[in-house]
Design a protein that fits this description.
The complex is a heterotrimer of chains A (375), B (392) and C (345). Chain B has 392 residues and is mainly α. Chain B contains twelve helices and seven strands. In chain B, the strands form three sheets. In chain B, strands 1-2-7 form a three-stranded antiparallel sheet. A two-stranded antiparallel sheet of chain B has the order 3-4. Chain C is built from 14 helices and 14 strands. In chain C, strands 2, 5, 6, 7, 8 and 14 form a six-stranded mixed sheet that branches. A five-stranded mixed sheet of chain C has the order 11-10-12-9-13. Classes of the chains: A mainly alpha (375), B mainly alpha (392), C alpha/beta (345). The A-C interface holds A 101, 132-133, 136-137, 140, 143-144, 147, 151, 161-163, 224-225, 227-229, 233-241, 318-319, 328-329, 332, 334, 337 and C 1, 4-5, 8, 11-12, 15, 19-20, 22-30, 35, 48-49, 60, 85, 87-90, 93, 96, 99-102, 184, 186-187, 189-190, 193-194, 213-216.
Chain lengths: 375, 392, 345
């Protein structure tokens, strides 16, 4: 209900027939409190409950996590003696947690690779940079430079096998592989599902619907246990590659539905105009339809990208050492075992930062679309 | 999307004809897929044969030899693998069913809280939702598993109320002992629900006919609680509590929820609830404010506006994504393998290890989950058709 | 514009192919031996962490009895016992990993059973360690025999023979129990140490290590006396590759025979040059061509003994101090144990 603040409209409620001036608070803080916290009896009750709840939990939490906490400890004895959280466990163990079993001296390569990678992602998020001429060379450069840094073997860098990749860089590798392989596949599946050819449509529908109905874990099991049986003897694929393909296929099935929604929103006039110009099917798609469709469904795409990032944590089950698995295995050290909770909170915080940033970006894109910004 | 008529005769050669080309492509696709499928299949057979791994489904009727920590039905180590997988399936259904209920309640509450005018409530709930959404579900489940491990031992268990105990072995509370009257009480409950539905329909028809508004809240509650109560009293009000008592290593008796079950349930519930909260929020905000203002202008009261104007329209936006969230929760219940909850994937994993038959075990798992997802999709399509806006 | 897209696409595909070709090993249609020689290292599946069998220290160096047998195979095949990649495997992952080719050999405290030997498509070498199922409980419980464990929560690995053993043991004694199964070794031990379960059950040889190194106070825990099953632990390989199976078998027998004939890592080179015992000469390659029959060089056993040691040295290195496990049946047959090296001629 709109707040009626004009005071000159006669109301019929008062006895003398004159209107009373509206209640205006001169102090903005009180006005804000009145409107947001105590505007109605129900609201007041809710406020009281919330305040009591906060008083009950927040001081305890602050004292556990900040005041009594141990941030830097020379050994676990200091942590055991303290009553608060033991953040020192992260200080002690952050290398294996975030970098896995990668050789200790080569961690600088991982850090450099991460910086390049995050820089590329950041640039990709700016609409100004959305042109093939810029993005394709950027990502090719990122791909080659990060893989070279991580793998080594050239330019005087020591070679590090994929089985030693772990922690946050492995999460990034899985994530990028999923997106890079899965996104073109998603586009193909979406186009196939909307195709006029019944065989193509049937194949795509069956593929998408059956893979969307199964948990990602079972697909990872297939990739690890069953996929090698499909290959002729002597041909073997790296486990990391198999897992990445499995996750990419899963990602593609969900993404195909989002893209299909975007394709449905393009009016027939666009197709007809492209035909009138004499463009073939693929030319129409690549140059006219897909750029528009992808822009429309961009928020949905980003949502699934966030989900793909979170899904990388599932490799805990099949033994690839991503950030979460590395933390779990590192925290079994009997001296620090009782502080596992603090380590998990830290890892959760890292995930939270990445996903929150991506979701804020998604909201920004929605806003741009709502304003009709052309990009 | 070929917009032009495929049936119009073309001037050029047949190779440029759309119809011809599409047929050729489809034949190529079918042949290609068929070849790849045959090649993969024969490779699998050859590899399994060469390594001497058993194939076939007969393992489902052989004795499993392992025990399962918790089960809805009777099971012991002498039972078959098939029964073990059934136990796993029922455990999945159990945690998924409860998860859906709790996640819906929590999610709706959080969603409504986020759009409330109370700044404190909306900020607190928005923080819950953000933390819930942006942390992977794997970490949620492991986090709660770790928290439960930190609870005290059975001998020093926490006591929230008389007879109930919280400890690192789980949660136990008193539970009524089964009596023959209880199925009849259940029947009474169903009769009560039917009665409430009929009452509401009658009241609505009367209101549309005569404009007279009949309060149905108290009569409805009376019927809902009264019918089963009457049945229960008729049987002599049987109620015997099975109170858990500490014997030896652990508590015996009462309702026992294992820590793995609780950790998995809480983890996936919190995660899914935060997504449902976002969906509810966007659903409520999708109802144009003009609707609410018009309803107010016509003179409808606040409760009426919510019930007859806002919620029906919001539900159309809320229900389809929520259905896919339910499906996602069911699939997330497969994470029981992380903390030792014997769900279908966990038992399937053990089975494929003990028998070596990876292909069969994984096929069973995938088919079961596909079945569940089809059921949920069908149900939601049915619901969508009911509430679809019937345009003029 | 289209041209540049095509060029970039071609470059990207070329890049992707070159990256994957590094990870796709297109070996010829040949046995495991060819693949190992081409790769230049042995892929060995080991336990995620069991003291005495396979444990990695903070620098990532592995040691243990199972680890030493991996090194022995590498020494025999490649001449260098360090050319091994250790792949830690959970109790459920281990067999699919071996079947799918992720590892060449499974030296991972795996009990040889009929089902595993026949239906799983695996072959097992001669047992390298004999043990049985054991139980560890907290002293405060006061249990001294299995009957005292009625109603307990028992931590056990999924997919292990222990899981089946305790099921039948408790059923036979009509005792109730609650299994807590977690695949990750460290999580399972952690669950026992944090009190989630009352009993930790695994191969008895694995328990002293966890008691000494993973418990807050080792004196709080006690291992129940007695063994409750037969657990012969052997190295597993895929079926269908007889040559590789023979190599594994005879490397194991070589270590038994070396101890029986007094060949140690210290005196191996001396004995190779100067021994007059025909057995030792054949073993170390001074006479005969045993190696060639296996598809290896003639100094295969010499490499094994000089770089890794004979069975006695392997045992003492891993089960001497601080674990101090008595050899018991893991001794040579001449000392009343079960380790019997087959004739090497």
């Amino acid at each position: 209900m709109p707040n009626d603040t004009t005071s000159n409209i006669p109301t019929s409620g008062t006895k003398s027939g004159r209107t009373a001036p509206p209640p205006t608070e001169r102090i903005p803080v009180l006005k804000w409190i009145r409107e947001n916290l105590v505007s109605s009896p129900l609201n007041t009750v809710v406020t009281i409950i919330c305040v009591f709840g906060l008083i009950y939990t927040v001081p305890d939490f602050i004292s556990w996590s900040l005041l009594d906490a141990v941030f830097n400890a020379s050994s676990h004895e200091d942590c055991r003696a303290a009553a608060g959280a033991c953040w020192a466990v992260v200080a002690d163990k952050h290398r294996p947690m975030f970098f896995g079993v990668y050789p200790y001296e080569e961690h600088w390569r991982l850090l450099l690779g991460l910086i390049i990678y995050c820089g590329a992602v950041g640039l990709t998020m700016l609409p100004k940079c959305w042109s093939y001429k810029f993005l394709v060379p950027l990502w090719l450069f990122t791909l080659f430079s990060t893989l070279t840094l991580m793998w080594g073997g050239v330019l005087g860098l020591a070679e590090v096998d994929t089985s030693q990749w772990g922690g946050l860089p492995l999460t990034m590798v899985l994530f990028s592989g999923t997106i890079v392989v899965g996104f073109p596949l998603a586009i193909l599946l979406a186009l196939g599902r909307r195709s006029d050819m019944p065989a193509v449509k049937a194949v795509c529908v069956i593929f998408i619907e059956s893979l969307r109905g199964v948990p990602l874990i079972t697909i990872l099991f297939v990739a690890v246990n069953v996929f090698p049986l499909f290959l002729p003897q002597g041909l073997e694929f790296d486990k990391l590659l198999r897992v990445m393909v499995g996750m990419a296929i899963f990602f593609a099935c969900y993404q195909a539905e989002v893209i299909r929604g975007g394709l449905q929103a393009i009016s027939r006039g666009q197709y007809e105009a492209a035909e009138a110009l004499g463009l073939g099917y693929w030319q129409t798609m690549i140059r006219i339809i897909l750029p528009q469709a992808l822009r429309i469904c961009l928020p949905g795409i980003v949502n699934h990208v966030i989900a793909a990032f979170k899904n990388t944590s599932l490799v805990l089950i099949i033994g690839l050492f991503d950030m979460l698995t590395a933390t779990t295995s590192v925290m079994q050290d009997p001296e620090w075992r009782r502080f596992t909770l603090e380590a998990y909170i830290c890892v959760g915080f890292v995930y939270f930062c990445f996903c929150y940033a991506l979701s804020k970006y998604s909201q920004q894109v929605e806003r741009w679309l709502g304003e009709g910004k052309r990009f | 999307m070929s917009a032009s008529d495929k049936n119009q005769p073309t001037q050029g050669s047949i190779f440029y004809d759309q119809g011809f080309r599409s047929i050729v492509y489809q034949i190529l696709l079918a042949v290609g897929l068929g070849y790849v499928g045959w090649a993969l299949f024969s490779n699998v057979i050859e590899n399994l044969d060469r390594q001497g791994i058993a194939t076939g489904w007969s393992f489902l009727w052989t004795s499993s030899g392992f025990d399962i920590g918790e089960s809805v039905i009777e099971y012991d180590a002498g039972d078959t693998y098939g029964r073990a997988l059934l136990v796993g399936f029922l455990n999945t259904v159990r945690v998924a069913f409860l998860g859906i209920i709790f996640a819906t309640i929590l999610g709706v509450f959080m969603g409504v809280a986020r759009v409330s005018r109370n700044w404190l409530l909306s900020t607190i709930s928005s923080w819950f939702v953000e933390i819930g959404r942006n942390v992977p579900v794997v970490l949620h489940v492991i986090f709660w598993g770790t928290v439960i491990h930190l609870l005290p031992q059975p001998r020093e268990a926490m006591v929230p109320f008389e007879g109930a105990f919280i400890m690192n072995r789980g949660f136990v509370m008193p539970f009524p002992v089964y009596d023959d009257a209880y199925p009849w009480v259940g029947l009474g409950l169903i009769v009560g629900i039917a009665g409430v539905v009929f009452l509401n329909k009658w009241a609505q028809a009367k209101r549309e006919r005569t404009g007279q508004y009949i309060h149905t809240l108290w009569p409805g509650l009376g019927i809902f609680f009264g019918c089963p109560l009457v049945v229960w009293l008729a049987f002599g009000a049987p109620l015997v509590w099975d109170v858990p008592a500490l014997k030896g290593f652990n508590f015996q008796g009462g309702l026992q929820l294992s820590p793995e079950f609780i950790a998995l349930l809480v983890g996936i519930t919190v995660y899914t609830a935060s997504f449902i909260a976002e969906i509810v929020r966007s659903g409520i905000q999708s109802v144009p404010s003009g609707q609410v203002e018009a309803a107010g202008a016509v003179g409808l009261r606040q409760g009426f506006i919510m019930r007859y104007v806002v919620i029906p329209q919001a539900l159309r936006v809320i229900v389809p994504p929520t259905a896919s969230q339910y499906l996602s929760l069911t699939k997330n219940s497969s994470l029981g393998v992380l903390i030792g909850y014997p769900d279908l994937v966990n038992i399937g994993n053990t089975t494929l290890n003990q028998t070596g038959q990876a292909v069969e075990a994984i096929t069973i798992m995938m088919l079961v989950y596909l079945g569940i997802s089809i059921v949920i999709s069908l149900f939601m399509n049915f619901y969508n058709r009911i509430v679809a806006i019937k345009e003029r | 514009m289209t041209k540049s897209i095509k060029t970039f696409a071609a470059l990207a595909i070329a890049g992707a192919v070159s990256m994957t070709s590094a990870s796709v090993a297109l070996a010829e249609d040949g046995p495991t031996l060819k693949a190992v020689k081409e790769r230049g290292e042995v892929l060995c599946g080991v336990h995620q962490g069991r003291y005495g069998f396979a444990i990695a220290d903070n620098q990532g160096k592995w040691k243990g009895l199972d680890v030493d047998f991996c090194r022995a195979v590498a020494a025999a095949v490649l001449g260098d016992s360090e050319k091994v990649k250790y792949i830690p495997l959970g109790s459920v992952q281990r067999f699919p990993a071996l079947q799918s080719g992720e590892v060449d050999m499974l030296s991972r405290t795996t009990t040889v059973t009929l089902t595993r030997d026949s239906a799983l498509g695996l072959n097992f070498g001669p047992p390298t360690f004999y043990t049985g199922t054991g139980f560890m409980v907290r002293k405060s419980i006061g249990a001294t025999k299995v009957e005292d464990l009625a109603g307990a929560a028992v931590c056990v690995f999924p997919g292990s023979t222990t899981e089946k053993n305790i099921a039948s043991l408790f059923a036979a004694k009509k005792l109730d129990y609650k299994p807590v199964v977690i695949e990750s070794s460290k999580q399972l031990v952690g669950a026992y140490m944090s009190g989630r379960c009352d009993v930790l059950s695994m191969d008895q040889a694995g328990l002293p290590g966890h008691q000494q190194f993973d418990a807050d106070n080792p004196a709080d825990h006690v291992i129940l006396p007695g063994v409750f099953s037969k657990e012969p632990l052997g190295v597993g390989v895929r079926a269908g590759d007889d040559q590789w199976f023979d190599i594994i078998k005879w490397v194991t027998h070589a270590t038994f025979n070396a101890e029986e004939w007094g060949v140690t890592s210290a005196n191996a080179s001396d004995l190779k040059a100067n021994s007059t015992d025909i057995n030792v000469q054949r073993l170390l390659g001074a006479k005969g061509d045993l190696g060639q029959k296996l598809g290896l060089g003639n100094d295969w056993a010499y490499n094994v003994i000089s770089q890794v040691g004979n069975y006695g040295e392997i045992y003492d290195r891993n089960w001497g101090p601080p674990l101090n496990l008595d050899r018991g049946v893991n001794n040579l047959w001449t000392n009343g144990g079960l380790m019997y090296g087959f004739p090497m001629k």
